[in-house]
Amino acid sequence: MVKVAVRSERAQETRVAILDAAERLFAEHGVGEVSNRQISEAAGQANNFAVGYHFGSKTELVRAIVHRYATETEQRRLRMLAALPDSADLREWISCLVRPVTDHLDGLGVPSWRARCLAQANTVPALRRIVIEESVATPSMRRTLEGMSRLLPGLPEEVHRERGDMSRLLVLHTLAERERALHEGGTTARTSWEATAVGLIDALGGLWFAPVTT
Amino acid sequence: MVKVAVRSERAQETRVAILDAAERLFAEHGVGEVSNRQISEAAGQANNFAVGYHFGSKTELVRAIVHRYATETEQRRLRMLAALPDSADLREWISCLVRPVTDHLDGLGVPSWRARCLAQANTVPALRRIVIEESVATPSMRRTLEGMSRLLPGLPEEVHRERGDMSRLLVLHTLAERERALHEGGTTARTSWEATAVGLIDALGGLWFAPVTT
User: What is the pTM of this model?
Assistant: First the structure.
């Protein structure tokens, strides 16, 4: 029994090392540009097939990377939703979209690769579907998006979908660009993740409420 | 003299072949992931140093790619500005930001790689500066941004800069994602580049006019 537990603990450590290495390599080079072999090496695995052994395909590896933090983000968002008044305005719902992510990035410290890794995965259509499945199609996100929809009753479905896509791109790439600037010592428009969240919530509020040209 | 003209014409054809190949490879794999040797090969050059010979460094190659269409976009925007009334509202100025780019992409047909190539270059800080120098710091862009600023007198400088960054990211990645979907047969929120421009102009109008939380 002790032997099995040790082996299982070691497997868990290997999985974490692979996820960390993959996240960094994907962020820096793009998901399609990094081989499972390179990830195994960067994770300090003597066995070049470690990624395949622990995760299966690269698609499943990306799913594991997204899923890894989705649970934490989900918990943060559910706590925010529980405290939301019935009278919540659009910006408060948008805050439930943005803050669980910026708070999480804030907690990772510098450097982190998370936002850039997700931005990279988003450029591969098959992986984008996985990112959306794992991070957008969750109970907390559904409740948030429903709350927003109730406040936007007249928005045509086509525009609703378009602004959803725009919100995803704006949040993803604003956070990825900030993460890169913090890592590489570049300048940032805002001095903290908290202020970045405020700026995004303001901007998204305007974007969603903008009049629609027909 | 004839010999020199032929040689110069051939050099010009080689340059175009290299720019086309580089744009496609950068769009698909990222600027940092593609070697000058791979570009030379994809451009059908027997000489692996063709990129270096014709363009110098990769930075200069990226500058040439951006500059190549910047002139056309500049002309489109200057024509729009010349027709703009003194009473132009914010959405008309934003239209001068967006339409020269969407009209250009519309003219390229399917597949194109331009939007994705610029989105990739934008993720490399040193190259982002070049993209901005070549495409944003032009006379037409300066006039457009000044026109917008006059209609946003109370906007704090920090927020002005932040929303400028957000506008760049939103336009760039919305167009890149649409270009990729058209190429790969995916779904798009809008049925045409024209409708995409309208959606972006609406959304950006809302983003820029959004109240600022202080």
Answer: 0.94
